[in-house]
Design brief:
Its EC number is 2.3.1.179. By secondary structure, the protein is an alpha/beta fold. The chain is 33% helix and 18% strand. Strand 13 and strand 14 form a beta hairpin.
Length: 415
């Protein structure tokens, strides 16, 4: 366990998701079992093996991003800045010359500016190198959501970007937690942002046989832990949290939403896309988060699962949860909000951390929708189809990524 002295609390949440473009709309969608999956509209997908996704709908950054600037930004950067501004507004944190060097930004992204890269590759091919946009490189690199958020907010403290595939958003939150714990920052803006619903993104994941191919019934395609799951549904969006040291938040009279108490990070060192059979890496990440938080399995009230709806992930994550939480694992609600939002890749850890924090604050466990056929290999309480009211004092959030990256975050009701 890392020796630390500073408690870290959450004071703001921001969300851009396939089921709501603000945190309140997103939470309402989670509680209602909303379904964000539909046929792709961002491009003509008629020739693709998978023709549906969980797109952000009716996204309008007017008033939050200058229209001229927005045209130069990749979509994932727009999501990240909008979510960050919402989180900062809720927190009431004012960034000024007096404190900006103690406030940092970490926004994770698994893919970065894929839309910009892909579109400019076509420009290069069709019109030649002189016509490629000068914004190509700045807007496709994965750190640019971090950079633009820092510029928009004027945050000059620790700044980095994490690119650990689907664990990136959770790694970003965990790394920000450590920076505050260890005294390197007083507050951090952190989370994940992603927008990879592009022809190349969808075709690439489809060729890897990672996606669901339920083109005749997209709404039922994301079905974590269900025996008939056949792959994940790609999604997009951003989730951002404002973390502060407890003393910093209290000194300014901030409303505290929850506390970050644990962070576990491991690597399978096994395969580029497949988890270790039995979920050993995920189990170690969960165990490390519990150890870091000085929590016992008996104290865990809810797990927001990685729950991608792929055959390999869900069964191995089930095994990991059983290993980490022992005999009580089957009694703990374990839901996958990806059943509603699809899989935001590097953005998923951000919106799922938001969900875990709100579950604690609101006393509601979001459901796993589309759950119809029990799988003996996934024999947990997956909160099927309907949200459940329950007192939640401690919640875990799991994120596992290609390359074998595993992250678990532990959140606790503030007291």
């Amino acid at each position: 366990m890392v020796e630390t002295s500073r408690r870290v609390v959450i004071t703001g949440l921001g969300s851009v998701t396939p089921i709501g473009n603000t945190t309140s709309a997103y939470w309402a969608g989670l509680c209602q079992g909303a379904n964000g999956v539909a046929p792709i509209t961002l491009f003509d997908a008629s020739a693709h093996a998978c023709r549906f996704a969980a797109e952000v709908k009716a996204f309008d950054p007017t008033g939050l991003i200058d229209p001229k600037e927005a045209k130069r930004w990749d979509r994932f950067c727009q999501f990240g800045v909008v979510a960050a501004k919402e989180a900062l507004a809720q927190s009431g944190l004012l960034i000024s010359d007096a404190n900006r060097q103690r406030i940092g930004v970490i926004i994770g992204s698994g893919v970065g500016g894929l839309l910009m890269m892909e579109s400019q590759a076509h420009v290069l091919k069709d019109k030649g190198p002189s016509r490629v946009s000068p914004f190509t490189v700045p807007m496709m690199i994965p750190n640019m959501a971090t950079g633009l958020v820092a510029i928009a907010l004027g945050a000059q403290g620790p700044s980095s970007a994490v690119a650990t595939a689907c664990a990136a958003g959770s790694n970003a939150i965990g790394d920000a937690f450590r920076l505050i714990q260890n005294g390197h920052a007083d507050a951090m803006v952190c989370g994940g942002a992603e927008s990879a619903i592009t022809p190349l993104g969808v075709a690439g994941f489809a060729s890897a046989k990672a996606l669901s191919f339920r083109n005749n019934d997209p709404a039922s395609a994301s079905r974590p832990f269900d025996a008939e799951r056949d792959g994940f549904v790609i999604g997009e969006g951003s989730g951002v949290l404002i973390l502060e040291s407890l003393s910093h938040a209290q000194a300014r009279g901030a409303a505290i939403l929850a506390e970050v108490v644990g962070y576990g990070s491991t690597c399978d060192a096994h395969h580029i896309t497949s988890p270790t059979p039995g979920g050993a890496g995920g189990a170690r990440a969960m165990a490390l988060a519990l150890l870091d938080a000085q929590l016992e399995a008996e104290q865990v009230d809810y797990v927001n699962a990685h729950g991608t709806s792929t055959p390999a992930n869900d069964s191995n994550e089930t095994a990991a949860i059983k290993t980490a939480l022992g005999p009580r694992a089957r009694q703990i609600p374990v839901s996958s909000t990806k059943s509603m939002t699809g899989h935001l890749l590097g953005g998923s850890g951000g919106i799922e951390a938001v969900a875990a924090v709100l579950a604690i604050g609101q006393g509601v466990v979001p459901p796993t929708i589309n759950y119809q056929n029990p799988d003996p290999a996934c024999d947990l309480d997956v909160v099927p189809n309907q949200a459940r009211e329950q007192i939640i004092n401690t919640a875990l959030s799991n994120s596992f990524g290609f390359g074998g990256h595993n992250v678990c975050l532990a959140f606790r009701r503030f007291a």
